[in-house]
Design a protein that fits this description.
about 180 residues, alpha+beta, Alpha-D-Glucose-1,6-Bisphosphate, Chain A, domain 4, eight-stranded antiparallel β-sheet, 6 helices
Length: about 180
C-alpha cells in the first residue's frame, strides 16, 4: 500500500446511489482503456485483486457457484461469499457486489453496484473511486499497489473526495470510521 504523495485522487465523478432503507446501492461507472477480457481477469483472479481491490480473495471469483473467502482490508473478518453469476467477460455477482463490463471503443465501460450501509455511502464511493484509479494503473502496467482502508484515509485527497461524494448524495460525511476500520 502506497500513500507516499505520488497519487492524489481526482474529483468525485461517475457515481450515484439508490436509496432503500439502511443499505443503499452505490453505483459507480468508469471508462477503462483496456479490453473487457483484461478487466475481467483483474476482477476475478486473486493475484490481480491483491494489486488493487479493497479485499483479499482466497480463490478465483470467475466461476458461478464457487465459494470464496473475502477479507476486506479495513477489517480482520473473513466472509465466505458465493459467486452467484459469472458470465465472462460481461457480468459478475457475489455478495453485495455486481459488476457489468461492456466493450466500448477498444476499452471497457465498467459499472459497479455495491450495497453499503447508508451512513458510510460517501466513504464507500471514495474508497471505490481510489480503487478504480489503482485498477487503471495496474492494468496499464504502472502499478501503485493497493490503497484501501486506513491507507486510503491517509491520502491528502481523502477528506475532499469524501465530502464531494457526500454533497453529491445529499448526506453528511461520517466523522469517524466504522469500528473495524479504527482497529485496523
Amino acid at each position: 500500500m502506497r500513500t507516499d504523495g505520488e497519487y492524489v485522487p481526482g474529483p468525485a465523478s461517475g457515481a450515484q446511489v439508490r436509496k432503500d432503507g439502511e443499505k443503499w446501492t452505490l453505483i459507480l461507472v468508469r471508462e477503462l482503456r483496456h479490453s473487457p477480457e483484461k478487466v475481467w481477469q483483474a476482477l476475478t483472479e486473486p493475484a490481480d485483486l491483491r494489486e488493487w481491490a479493497p479485499f483479499v480473495a482466497d480463490g478465483s471469483l470467475g466461476t458461478a457457484g464457487s465459494k470464496v473467502n473475502l477479507t476486506w482490508v479495513a477489517t480482520a473478518a473473513t466472509i465466505e461469499t458465493e459467486v452467484t453469476r459469472a458470465d465472462a467477460p460481461s457480468l459478475l455477482e457475489y455478495g453485495d457486489i455486481r459488476w457489468e463490463l461492456e466493450g466500448s471503443g477498444g476499452g471497457t465501460h465498467l459499472t459497479l453496484w455495491h450495497k453499503i450501509d447508508r451512513r458510510f455511502i460517501s466513504w464507500g464511493a471514495a474508497g471505490w473511486h481510489i480503487s478504480f484509479d489503482v485498477l487503471e494503473r495496474h492494468l496499464a502496467g504502472q502499478p501503485l499497489g493497493r490503497i484501501a482502508g486506513a491507507e486510503a484515509m491517509k491520502l491528502s485527497g481523502w477528506r475532499r473526495l469524501t465530502a464531494e461524494y457526500a454533497k453529491q448524495f445529499g448526506v453528511e460525511a461520517p466523522n469517524r470510521p466504522p469500528k473495524a476500520t479504527q482497529e485496523a
